[in-house]
Design a protein that fits this description.
With 181 residues, the chain is mostly helical. The protein has a single domain, classed as Arp2/3 complex 21 kDa subunit ARPC3 (Orthogonal Bundle). The longest helix is centred in the middle third of the chain and has 32 residues. It is globular. The model has no long low-confidence stretch (mean pLDDT 88).
Length: 181
């Protein structure tokens, strides 16, 4: 199989997995489970498929979640989530680099920096801008929406990164390579 076909296949499978995970876990009503698994899949995409794969999934996942009614209820939030996901993926790409040896310390650093950056993007864009300025929600509803895009986002990104420490090395070994370039 040529590299382009492999990249398309791998990215498509991860995107499909992400959509299924969102659909199945959203019924549980626990955003910590859904968010953690979404972040794990974003990290798997960038660490095994490269930056283009990670960004593709990062940008498309909130759009599909919105279209299928399993994501944010407001279209104004979809773009913010896509940007937050992209920031996480880019940071993972930069920190983990394309070296053959991915150490636990590299993953820990990428997890912490990526989680804080994604949290910052989502907090500033959604909590400080979209909810109060664009959506002009009443206080009780604004507090509920804002709460979902504050500390829980930091926690889910940290958990997703932590899970990646367990999953990515095993998956990379199973694929018999580090990344599709």
């Amino acid at each position: 199989m040529n590299r382009k076909a492999l990249w398309i296949t791998q990215t498509g499978v991860l995107l499909a997995l992400l959509i299924v995970v969102q659909a199945v876990t959203s019924g549980l009503g626990n955003t910590l489970v859904t968010g953690s698994l979404v972040n794990l899949i974003l990290i798997v995409a960038v660490t095994t498929g490269g930056l283009a794969s990670g960004l593709t999934i990062a940008l498309l996942s909130p759009i599909f979640a919105f279209m299928y009614g399993i994501g944010p209820a407001f279209p104004q939030i979809v773009g913010c989530i896509a940007i937050g996901n992209a920031v996480l993926v880019i940071i993972w790409h930069v920190i983990s680099g394309f070296n053959k040896k991915q150490s636990i310390m590299t993953f820990v650093l990428a997890t912490v920096v990526g989680a804080v950056a994604k949290f910052g993007v989502l907090y500033l864009s959604i909590v400080q801008f979209v909810v109060p300025i664009l959506l002009k929600m009443p206080a009780p509803k604004a507090a509920m929406v804002s709460g979902a895009f504050s500390v829980p986002q930091l926690i889910t990104a940290l958990v997703g990164g932590g899970l990646s420490i367990l999953v990515v090395p095993v998956l990379s070994k199973a694929l018999n390579r580090q990344r599709v370039r």
